[in-house]
Amino acid sequence: MVMRPVLLRYGVPGLAVGLALVLQLLLVPWFGADPDTTSFLLFFAALIVAAWFGGLRPGFVATVLSALTSNYFFLYPEHSLEIVSFGQGLRLAVFSIEGVFISCLLGITHSVRKRAEEAQRGLKYPFGVRGKACRIRGFCRSLRRVGSLLGGGKPVPARKHWPNALITVR
Predict the structure, then answer these.
(1) Is there a single domain that holds both residue 28 and residue 68?
(2) pLDDT at 161
(3) How far apart are CA 70 and CA 21, in angstroms?
């Protein structure tokens, strides 16, 4: 998994929420009811996309943007961030809690996928990058010296191809 640039990771939530807003504004007349009834419908998709693409924090950003946008454009009074009733506040709170929950779940899958890919690279090169294989060679040389001391001064033969070897686990 390639680490995406910060601007891209945090730009996707803004674009996803903007797209959800446009689609919601276009679909409200077709829903046949006031916008209050379906105010969060498309914003769930926006925060799922943001959390899947960027991880936990971009999911939180999309949750906050979606709650603010939905409150401003679709909840009464329109074009205001004022919360006029307990029910409206409760709807915003439930949406925000669900958004945090979705972001956490997708953030966990995002980080698990990242760790799995790092572990897969680690299995191919157990000591990180190829240059660190010299630690193995140095360790083996030390073992040969200890073996020669324990073996009564007889040198332990070294394998000729060992200096260029790289241990891989398959």
Answers:
(1) yes
(2) 47
(3) 8
- Residue 63 burial (10 A CB sphere; 0-12, 13-18, 19+): buried
Tally the C-alpha atoms within 13 A of residue 169's C-alpha that lie toward its C-beta. Answer: 9
Q: Which two tokens stand for residue 33?
A: 């009811």
**Residues whose CB falls within 8 Å of the CB of residue 128, separated by 6 or more in sequence, listed in order:** 122
Domain with 147, as residue range(s), is 130-164
Query: Structure pTM?
Result: 0.66
Which stretches of the chain score pLDDT less than 70?
1-3, 33-37, 123-170
Between CA 43 and CA 155 the distance in angstroms is: 72
Q: Is residue 170 part of a domain?
A: no
Distance CA(33)–CA(97), nearest Å, equals 25
41, 34 in Cβ contact below 8 A?
A: no
Residue 94 and residue 151 share a domain: no
Q: In whole angstroms, give the CA distance from residue 157 to residue 147.
A: 10
Distance (Å, whole) CA 30 – CA 165:
68
